[in-house]
Design a protein that fits this description.
heterodimer; A: about 525 residues; mainly alpha; two-stranded antiparallel sheet; about 70% helix; disordered C terminus; B: about 150 residues; about 0% strand; elongated
C-alpha cells in the first residue's frame, strides 16, 4: 500500500465519531491550557493520562496529541493580550504580539497567530506523513547500541536546551535516571530503592510524579506571586490580517514551518527552541530589524508557525523510533505503553490503524484548532479573567483524582505531594524539572540498552563508537556538549590576555559583563 | 524556614543534598552488586548514576556556587503560611480520603484551598466547595466510573 492509501485508512479511523470527539476534547483542553497561565501542557497531559486507561489507544493518543498542539495555539493569546506567555514557546509572541495589541492591532495579531500556527502545523504533518515510512525502515536496522546512543542524545539535548544551567540540568537528569531504577531490576528481579514499600515494587508511576513536579509545584510557586493580570483595554476588533500583513509574513511563515519541522525532529528540540530560533532568523533576515520588538507582524508569524511545526514533527522520533524527544511526547509514550503498545519502527506494521489514525487526526485537529481559535477567540479571552483560586481548585481536584486512579490508593496522592514539594524546592533553586521526568521515563530504556550492548559485546564500551550509526549519534552529542566548553575556554583565554581584556572581537568595549 | 533562606544558599543546600544522595546511590549500588562491564549486576546502573551525580554536584558546588548577599525572597516569606497550609491540607486529604469518602473529603479539601488562596466569606466558601465536590463526584465517579473511595459519607 502506498502512503495515500494508508493515510486514507487513517482518516477513516480519525473520522470515527468517538475519535473525532476526543480530538475535539484534546484540542479544546489544549487551547484552554495554553490560554491559562499557570497550568502547563505536561501537567495537563499527565492529569488526563489516567482517563486514557478507559479509552481505546487511538482515542487516547488523539486526545493527548490534541492537548499538546492545542496548547501551542492557545499559548500566545495571553502573550499577545497580556504579555504573559501561556506556554514557554509563546514567549516570543510577547515581543511583537503585545506591541501590535498596544497599537490597536490585537485582532489581526491573533488572527495571524492562528493562521501561521495552522500553516506550520499542517505543513509539518505533511512532512511527518512523508518521512514516517523511510525513517521507520531505517530504524529497523537499529540495535541496542544505536538505541542507547539515541536515548542518550535525547537526554543530552534536553539538558543542553533546558532553561537553566547545563550542570543543573545534568544533575536533574541523573536524579531522574536514579528515580527510573526504583522497583524490580529487569534482569534478576532484585528490589531497588523500594525502601520495603510494596507500592514501589512496580516502580514510580509517571503520572503522580509529573503532576507533583509540574502541577502541584506550579501552584505553590504561583501562591508566592501576587495575582497580576493587566487587561488590555479596548476591543480586539477584526481578526483577519490585511493583504499587507500577508505580504510581509508569508515568507516568514514558510521559513518558520520548515525550520520548526527540522528542529522538532531532533531529540530535545521542540516548540520553545524553534520559536526562539525562528525569531532570531527573521530578525537577521529582515531589511528593517529595528521594527522587531516594536510590533513587527513577521516577528509573530514566523515563530508561531515554527513552534506548531516543531510540536507536530516531535512526534516523528516517537512514532518511528519509539524515543520521545520531549516531555509531552514522553507522556504519549507512557499512554501507549499503558495499553501494551511499544511505539517504534514496527508500530507502523503492527498497529497501522493507530499510527495512521493519529497522523490523520493531526490534519483534522489543525482544522478544529483553527475553528476554535478564530470565531471563539472572545471565549478564550474571557477565560483569561477566571480568578486564580478557582483554577487552583480545579487543578488540585483533577490532580488528586488523577493520582488516586493510577493505583486506586492514596499512596499515589502522597507521591504526588512529595514530588510537588521537591519540585517547588528544586525549581525555586534554579534546577529544571523537565530533564528529571524525561530521564525517569527514558532511564529504564537507557539501562536495558546499555546492559544488552555491554553483555553482547563482552563489556566493550567502544561498541558505541565503532558501529557507524551509533558512532555518528555519539559524535553529534559530543560536539553539542564540547562546543560550549570550548567557547567558554576561548572566552577565558581572551579575557586573560591583557591587551584584549574587556574588549570584544570587534574591538569595542564590552560593558555587558 | 525555606523562604528565609537566601536563594543562592537554597541552591547550595539542594546541591549538597543531591551530593549526599549520590553517595547513597553508590552505596545502594555496591550493596546490590555492581558486577563488571561484561556482566553488569542490579547495582551497576545505580552505582554509575551515583558516580556521575557526585561528580556533577561537586562541580556545581565548586564552580557555580555563589556566596554573598542575595536579596531576601520577600514574596516567598510572606506566602510561607499559605504554602505550608496548602501542603498540610493535601497531606491530611491523603489520610481522610479512605475514611470519609471522596465527596466529603473533597468538600473539605476544596474549602481549605479556597480559604488558603482567597479572601471569600465562609458561606461562599461552603457553597463553592459543595459545588466543586458535587461536580467532581458526578463527573469522575458517576459519569466516568472511576473507582473513587466511598468511605463513611460517599
Amino acid at each position: 500500500m502506498n502512503i495515500l492509501e494508508l493515510l486514507a485508512g487513517g482518516f477513516w479511523v480519525a473520522l470515527q465519531p468517538t475519535n473525532l470527539f476526543y480530538g475535539l476534547v484534546g484540542a479544546t483542553v489544549g487551547t484552554a491550557v495554553g490560554v491559562l497561565p499557570g497550568l502547563g501542557t505536561v501537567a495537563t497531559m499527565a492529569l488526563l493520562l489516567p482517563l486514557t486507561y478507559y479509552l481505546e489507544p487511538v482515542s487516547a493518543v488523539i486526545m493527548l496529541a490534541g492537548i499538546f498542539y492545542g496548547a501551542q495555539y492557545g499559548g500566545s493569546v495571553t502573550a499577545i493580550l497580556l504579555k504573559i506567555p501561556g506556554e514557554e514557546a509563546a514567549i516570543t509572541a510577547t515581543l511583537d504580539g503585545y506591541q501590535l495589541a498596544r497599537q490597536g492591532r490585537a485582532g489581526p495579531a491573533l488572527g495571524m497567530r492562528a493562521f501561521a500556527s495552522f500553516i506550520g502545523g499542517t505543513l509539518a504533518i505533511v512532512g511527518l506523513t512523508v518521512a514516517a515510512v523511510p525513517l521507520s525502515e531505517m530504524a529497523l536496522r537499529f540495535g541496542p547500541p544505536e538505541y542507547f546512543a539515541l536515548v542518550l542524545l535525547g537526554l543530552l539535548m534536553v539538558v543542553y536546551l533546558s532553561d537553566s544551567s547545563i550542570m543543573k540540568g545534568a544533575i536533574m537528569a541523573f536524579l531522574g535516571i536514579a528515580a527510573g531504577t526504583v522497583g524490580l531490576d529487569p534482569v534478576l528481579g532484585t528490589e531497588r530503592l523500594t525502601f520495603g514499600m510494596a507500592h514501589l515494587r512496580s516502580g514510580l508511576d509517571v503520572v503522580p510524579v509529573a503532576m507533583g513536579l509540574f502541577g502541584i509545584s506550579e501552584i505553590m510557586l504561583n501562591l508566592e506571586r501576587p495575582e497580576h493580570r493587566a487587561a488590555l483595554k479596548g476591543a480586539i476588533g477584526g481578526l483577519l490580517p490585511s493583504r499587507e500583513d500577508w505580504k510581509t509574513c508569508w515568507r516568514s511563515i514558510a521559513r518558520g514551518s520548515l525550520f520548526g519541522f527540522f528542529i522538532g525532529i531532533l531529540p530535545g528540540g521542540g516548540a520553545t527552541i524553534s520559536s526562539f530560533m525562528s525569531y532570531g532568523l527573521e530578525k537577521r533576515l529582515s531589511k528593517t530589524p529595528e521594527r522587531f520588538g516594536r510590533g513587527a507582524m513577521e516577528g509573530l508569524a514566523g515563530p508561531e508557525s515554527a513552534n506548531n511545526a516543531a510540536s507536530t514533527s516531535s512526534f516523528i522520533p516517537l512514532l518511528t523510533l519509539g524515543i520521545p524527544g520531549n516531555l509531552s511526547t514522553a507522556i504519549v509514550l507512557v499512554a501507549l505503553m499503558i495499553h501494551g503498545i511499544q511505539p517504534g519502527p514496527l508500530m507502523m506494521a503492527q498497529e497501522p490503524e493507530l499510527f495512521w489514525g493519529v497522523v490523520a487526526s493531526m490534519y483534522i485537529g489543525n482544522i478544529i484548532l483553527l475553528c476554535l481559535n478564530l470565531p471563539l477567540i472572545g471565549l478564550w479571552v474571557r477565560l483569561l479573567y477566571t480568578p486564580y483560586h478557582y483554577l487552583v481548585l480545579l487543578i488540585v481536584i483533577a490532580c488528586v483524582v488523577g493520582a488516586y486512579s493510577v493505583s486506586n490508593s492514596t499512596f499515589s496522592i502522597g507521591v504526588m505531594l512529595v514530588f510537588g514539594v521537591i519540585g517547588y524546592i528544586v525549581r525555586k533553586s534554579g534546577f529544571p524539572a523537565a530533564p528529571f521526568l524525561l530521564a525517569m521515563i527514558l532511564g529504564p530504556m537507557l539501562e536495558a540498552t546499555l546492559q544488552q550492548s555491554l553483555i553482547a559485546n563482552g563489556g566493550n564500551l567502544l561498541i558505541f563508537v565503532q558501529r557507524p550509526i551509533s558512532g555518528v549519534i555519539v559524535g553529534f552529542g559530543a560536539i553539542f556538549m564540547l562546543v560550549p566548553l570550548v567557547r567558554a575556554g576561548f572566552r577565558k583565554i581572551r579575557t586573560a590576555l591583557p591587551d584584549t581584556a574587556g574588549t570584544d572581537s570587534r574591538g569595542y568595549d564590552d560593558y555587558s559583563k | 524556614m525555606l523562604s528565609r533562606i537566601k536563594t543562592a544558599s537554597l541552591a547550595n543546600l539542594v546541591t549538597v543534598t543531591f551530593a549526599l544522595f549520590s553517595l547513597f546511590l553508590m552505596g545502594e549500588g555496591v550493596a546490590l552488586g555492581v558486577g563488571s562491564l561484561s556482566v553488569p549486576e542490579p547495582g551497576f546502573f545505580l552505582f554509575v548514576a551515583g558516580v556521575f551525580l557526585l561528580v556533577l554536584t561537586l562541580a556545581q558546588l565548586i564552580f557555580h556556587s555563589r556566596v554573598g548577599s542575595v536579596e531576601e525572597d520577600v514574596e516567598g516569606e510572606q506566602s510561607l503560611p499559605k504554602l505550608v497550609s496548602f501542603v498540610v491540607a493535601l497531606f491530611l486529604y491523603c489520610f481522610i480520603l479512605n475514611f470519609l469518602g471522596f465527596l466529603a473529603s473533597t468538600f473539605l479539601l476544596s474549602a481549605a484551598i479556597l480559604i488558603i488562596t482567597s479572601k471569600m466569606r465562609w458561606y461562599k466558601v461552603a457553597w463553592i466547595s459543595a459545588v466543586a465536590a458535587g461536580f467532581s463526584f458526578v463527573t469522575f465517579k458517576i459519569m466516568l466510573g472511576l473507582p473513587l473511595p466511598s468511605g463513611q459519607f460517599y
